[in-house]
Amino acid sequence: MSAPPTTIQGGDGRPRLSLANLSKVPKACRPVIDPRDLEVRIVHLGIGAFHRAHQAAFTEDAIAISSEPWGICGVTQRSGDVVAQLAPQDGLYSLSVRDGSGEWLRVMGVVREVLWAKEQTEQVLVRIADPKVALVTLTVTEKGYQRDPATGHLRASDPEVQADLGGRPPRTPIGQLVEGFARRAAGRSGGDAPLTVLSCDNLPDNGHALGALVREYCALRPGGGALMKWVESYVTFPSSVVDRIVPATTPEDRERVAETLGLEDRGAVVTEPFRQWVIEDRFAAARPRWELAGATLTGRVAPYERAKLRLLNGAHSTIAYLGALAGYEFVADAAPRGSPIGEAARLLMARDVVPTLEVPEGFDLVAYQDDILQRFQNPAARYRTLQIAMDGSQKLPQRLLGTVAERRSQGVLPVWAGLGVAAWARFVSARRSDKGVPLVVDDPLDARIAKAVAGKESPRDVVDAVLGLEEIFPASLREDAALGEMLTELVTRLGRGGAEQTVRELLREVT
Predict the structure, then answer these.
(1) Of 297, 311, 461, 497, whose CB count within 10 A is highest?
(2) pLDDT tens digits, residue range 309-343?
(3) Confidence at residue 192, expressed as pLDDT on a 0 to 100 scale
(4) Across the chain, how many H-helices and E-strands are there?
(5) Can you tell me the distance from the alpha carbon of 51 to that of 30, in angstroms, rounded to the nearest whole number?
């Protein structure tokens, strides 16, 4: 990414944030590292706001302590918006950390290149093949893996996967990885250069899941057998757990940042103070010293992962669906302290999730649940319910259905986890709030879901239709008559009295 030859003006007349204008940034807000000292050693697939607030921030903080030059090449998958935001700014962006007591803002300099996979596929592949690159990290969301959430296998029949396998410049993250591996293996100096591929998405055992998908893809690719042997020898896929709430940046946020910096920043990111990164210590090559920035390196990620996915993400999704039905735009408004929906989230964690967890040594589970609720109630983190409600077909298995299945195996009907599932069923079938406002269902399986629920009037029919979605629900839940009856009762109540009244009634009856 080359620096612009002249100062670029923003749309509001202010100069754009850039290396040329970095001296104009207030000293307290400047990067803690010199971006010019870094070289690209990490390729990140999925450079959205979450990555910039989480892994990139951990990396920059680690560099500030270790002085190692770990620059990031960020790849955007869906659209070129991030390139338009960051390339004219030389990869610079501001990170605003906010809670109810105030705000801390800093310009970040660790991103040294930004590419759009759709139009710059060749550059992406060259980067992955570069022997100087020791890490590829991913935040492409659950649906970016082209993985069937019910079976865990690659959706080999997906048109995008088929197109990549057919020889087009790869557009799927798995296709990009495998083609990058092939080039790396064939390279004169890269053939024996080890590489770590680190998933940072909310998938159970995400490293193992990603490695399995890569192997399945290789098996379908011409000459894939030899490539698979190279992958087994030179690539590792450690698992990780990531956590930080990063709401979508608003025009008001950008204006506030511009007033602070005196420069326009179109890549501004807003987040909360809390952050967590648990990483399986299984690297094929060198890595940033993330532990210096507070990351946890461990030999066993699974207990942390299950706690996070089922407690935080499960509660977040439950609040999102109930809150959207009740007409709330933001999580903090849907679940303030003492509210019915907030209490439902607390009981989901305490009653249904905790009995399914193995607690990591030294991990304070009670304090963790309290922290989760406090974070949801942070008025400065304006996280939209519909943003969390996206991609429910991909999120539900990890966030709620695992809890439901395990509690059923323990002989318990999990009312509060069931309420989250029922709220999703009501959300995707009614597609309107309790006040009649249309709700947008943004989901990769939306056509499949819409067809399944079309014309279904009764709650029983709706429940049967969604339980019949084999891509989402495992056979044990599809065939569970008692679970079906409970979900039908909950969907009936949600349709009759609305989300908040349903929760109030359950709080009186169940607690």
Answers:
(1) 311
(2) 999 999 999 999 999 999 999 999 999 989 999 99
(3) 84
(4) 23, 12
(5) 19
Q: Which residue has the tokens 């929760």?
A: 503
Residue 266: both structure tokens together: 């179109």
* pTM for this prediction: 0.83
For residues 286 and 317, state if they share a domain: no
Same domain, 273 and 385: no
Under a CB-based contact definition with an 8 Å cutoff, are residues 133 and 45 in contact? no
CATH of the domain at 112: 3.40.50.720
Dihedral of alpha carbons 198, 204, 210, 215, sign: positive
Cα 59 to chain centroid, rounded? 18
Q: Would you say residue 4 lies in a domain? A: no
What residues form DSSP beta bridges with 298? 280
* Separation of alpha carbons 122 and 487, rounded Å: 49
Report DSSP state, residue 151: T
Q: Are residues 330 and 293 in the same domain?
A: no
Q: Decide which of 298, 330, 359 is a domain's last residue.
A: 298
* In a shared domain, residues 138 and 259: yes
Q: Are residues 244 and 334 in the same domain?
A: no
Spatial neighbors of 302 by CB under 8 A, at least 6 apart, are: 205, 239, 358
Q: Which residues of 215-250 are buried (b: 16+ CB within 10 A; e: fewer)?
A: bbbbeebeebeebbebbeebbbbbbbbbbbbbbebe
Q: Which residue has the tokens 């893996």?
A: 145
Residue % of the chain over a pLDDT of 70:
97
Same domain, yes or no, for 324 and 286? no
193-250 pLDDT per residue, tens:
999 999 999 888 999 999 999 999 999 998 899 999 999 999 999 999 999 999 889 9
Instruction: Name the residue range of residue 438's domain.
Output: 302-510
* Model pLDDT for residues 102-145, shown as the tens digit of each residue: 899 999 999 999 999 999 999 999 999 999 999 999 999 988 99
Counting the structural domains of the chain, the total is 2
Among 251, 282, 298, the domain-final residue is 298
Domain CATH code at residue 469 = 1.10.1040.10
